[in-house]
Amino acid sequence: MVHAGGHNSPAGSNPNPTHMNKFAFGCAVVASIISIIFGYDTGVMSGARIFIQDDLKINDDQVEVLMGILNLCALVGSLTAGKTSDVIGRRYTIALSSVIFLVGSVVMGYGPNYAVLMVGRCIAGVGVGFALMIAPVYSAEIASASHRGFLTSLPELCISLGILLGYVSNYFFGKLTLKLGWRLMLGLAAIPSMILAFGILKMPESPRWLVMQGRLEEAKKIMVLISNTEEEAEERFRDILAAAEIEEDGAVKAVGRGVWRELVINPTPAVRLILIAAVGIHFFEHATGIEAVVLYSPKIFEKAGVTSKDKLLLATVGVGLTKAVFIVIATFLLDKVGRRKLLLTSTGGMVFASTSLAIGLTIVHRFGRLVWALRLSIVSAYTFVAFFSIGLGPITWVYSSEIFPLRLRAQGASIGVAVNRIMNATVSMSFLSIMKTITMGGVFFMFAGIAVVAWWFFFFMLPETKGLPLEEIEKLFGGGDARGDREGLEIQAKRVNNKI
User: Fold this and answer.
1) 131: nearest Cα among 33, 277, 209, 207
2) Mean pLDDT, the chain, as a whole number?
């Protein structure tokens, strides 16, 4: 079997191991805890919104701003996170994100009025931007090619688990007094933030980032820890060296210089297609309507005939549970079925579910609460979440974190996250207003149409990346051998290996 170095694998090596490295798995799990905190914040705000509106006496427009401001601030965080992670490293960027979350959670939990609550939400939003960019990138950079889909989807799984915990928190804390309940819901996220800030410092740095810094001996030691055999570690390490633009003297080019120029101003044809693919998948993840279902699920179920607060919160717990279960299924399918098949199946299912949800809600709106239409609406909402979670949800983060070349990965991923947050904010801040104009059923007809466009985009623009080393993926987009002459680069890699 020939790999990036151009040599056959040594006898006994296992460059594509059939079993997952436990240390790499542990690293990915710890890194993904930051995503649980973000998911919790998203889920808990869905229910806390009801109590905040009653307590602070705010109107629907203020609610929309409160819901969406987190994503606008996350835009700032995501655009900053790429450069930050290139400078201070992936590990310290995760720690910084957790500290920002901690501060935001404390301020929101205090929340004596709408203005202070907004400040806390903005601070947490910056943490969201950091978290969404760095967790998948870190997981992708420590994973082997054969298990990268599973490990890189863990952050999305953790977001779903966090959303579910947020819904459960809504249900139990909602039974407390009005002034205390929602503040405990929001402030609780400070505890895991504090734990993670210290815990992540015990984990190793990404070996790919260390190579870009010229810290080759450290990188090689970590690569041995996250590989199943020394031969596999050597194979993966050689691929990274070849991709890291090693100078003739064995030094590595300074990271971060000219990255924006290579990404946006003067990209190669391959990088341009990679950027379009990353931006497109992030755009369609939220343009197809998942935020409307997750964030405003109590409103949807209220329209569908569920009236009491207890039943509304229980129904949203069901949404969170559905999301978590189907993402668990997706994590095990990603490296077997592949990204592309799951993505197309998922998006096609979302077209069907959005359409049936729109039909159900429209009939309820025009003809009253017919039992079959109410049931159709509720089942369709759950079906929509299930199809999203088995494909588009996790694959967005997996795909965008693995397609960029090493030198462009962090800041390329940050562009994708920025687009993701813009669309998230657009949907969350406009949903109620659009609903009042074209009805809730009309909104979901619109989402169904967008999902049709998304399916065609994915079909034509997103090639399969399953099982390929990160250093090989650029070729799928027409980049050829992005490392240039294999033999020359192999000689340079050997020279560096000899030095360490």
Assistant:
1) 33
2) 81
Q: pLDDT for 83-120, tens place per residue? A: 888 889 988 998 898 889 889 989 988 888 889 989 99
Q: Is the pTM of this model over 0.85?
A: no
| pLDDT digits 0-9 by tens, 418-469 | 898 888 878 877 888 888 889 888 999 999 999 999 999 999 999 999 888 8
Residue 257, exposed/middle/buried by CB under 10 A (0-12, 13-18, 19+)? exposed
- What domains, with CATH codes, occur in the chain? 22-216+240-499 (1.20.1250.20)
Token pair listed for 186 = 């929001």
